[in-house]
Design brief:
It is built from 15 helices and 2 strands. It has about 300 residues and is mainly α. Strands 1-2 form a two-stranded antiparallel sheet. Helix 1 (about 5-25) crosses helix 3, helix 1 (about 5-25) crosses helix 4 (about 65-85) and helix 7 runs antiparallel to helix 9. The radius of gyration is 18 Å and the shape is globular.
């Protein structure tokens, strides 16, 4: 990760963190104390804020200022954080560690974690409905539709359902590569792509630019999941910030388990190349998005 990109990523993360803290302070004024604390625990826990970064940088390609795009970025991060809170529950992935500290259910309890996740999900759409997200009502509607689609039954939630059906029910008994790719594109890729999509919506990007950015976001989502699977297979839990080697222990089908580490690394490199090539029409101004792709390939946590 080059220094300029690291500084840019950190600066956007700070901006998004401040927006999230402000939104939560307002949203939690009349919220029961335990629920408010759990919401903050699930959201204000650091992290690279990659998805919000994609919103801000994609919108910025077309001149949308950060003070506008940060609201859609914060909404997306609320959805991402809600998904982590719920994913960590005993009924799902049963994780006790997230970003190097106890998960919400481990720090509080299951019912609090469920409600905190529910509250973060609904807060995301409240944020997008406000004029601060965009002065144009039609744009706000497009943002709501895009995030709902990416997060819901045909996106992240549907992917999680496929993942849990394989883990809990053994369905399908022997997941093939096509199944794994579909699952991962829905569960992980959909919100990565949505970050790019929402930035383009804010900018009212042309169909040709939207197509290029969609190709980039789709490839980036796949690369992120391959990198995540490699981290689970090879990473150090102390560095990654969560338990590792869980996929192998659970016998979970991933592109790494199906094709091996060497093949997965080769596909990761090729996918990053495709993501970067998709940005050709956008020229030098898309340098930060190209760096984001390289960052995904090289990440260690």
């Amino acid at each position: 990760m080059n220094d300029d990109f690291a500084e840019r990523l950190a600066a956007h993360a700070t901006t998004v963190e401040a927006c999230l803290a402000e939104v939560l302070a307002e949203a939690c004024e009349v919220v029961p104390t335990r629920l408010a604390e759990a919401m903050r625990h699930g959201v204000l826990a650091g992290g690279k804020r990659l998805r919000p970064f994609l919103v801000i940088e994609t919108a910025g390609l077309f001149g949308v200022p950060v003070e506008t795009s940060v609201h859609a970025a914060a909404a997306l991060e609320c959805v991402h954080c809600y998904s982590l809170v719920h994913d960590d529950l005993p009924a799902m992935d049963d994780d006790r560690l997230r970003r190097g500290r106890p998960t919400v259910w481990a720090a509080y309890d299951e019912w609090t974690a469920i409600l905190a996740g529910d509250a973060l999900l609904t807060l995301a759409f409240e944020i997008l409905s406000r004029p601060q997200a965009s002065p144009a009502p039609a744009t706000r509607i497009r943002l709501v539709q895009a995030l709902a689609r990416a997060a819901g039954r045909a996106g992240m939630v549907g992917g999680q359902a496929l993942d849990l059906a394989a883990d809990k029910l053994g369905e399908p008994p022997s997941p093939d590569e096509a199944h794994v790719r579909r699952l991962q594109a829905m569960k992980t890729g959909s919100l990565i792509l949505n970050g790019v999509e929402m930035g383009a919506i804010l900018a009212d990007a042309s169909p040709a630019d939207m197509a290029a950015l969609t190709a980039y976001g789709t490839a980036l989502g796949l690369a992120f999941q391959i990198a995540d699977d490699l981290l689970d297979a090879e990473g150090d839990a102390a560095v990654v910030g969560k338990a590792t080697a869980k996929d192998a222990t659970a016998g979970k089908a991933t592109l790494v388990s199906l094709n091996g580490i060497t093949a997965a690394r080769g596909e990761l490199a090729g996918t990053i190349d495709r993501a970067i090539a998709a940005l050709d029409r956008l020229g030098p101004r898309a340098a930060a998005l190209r760096d984001a792709a390289r960052f995904v390939a090289a990440r260690r946590s």
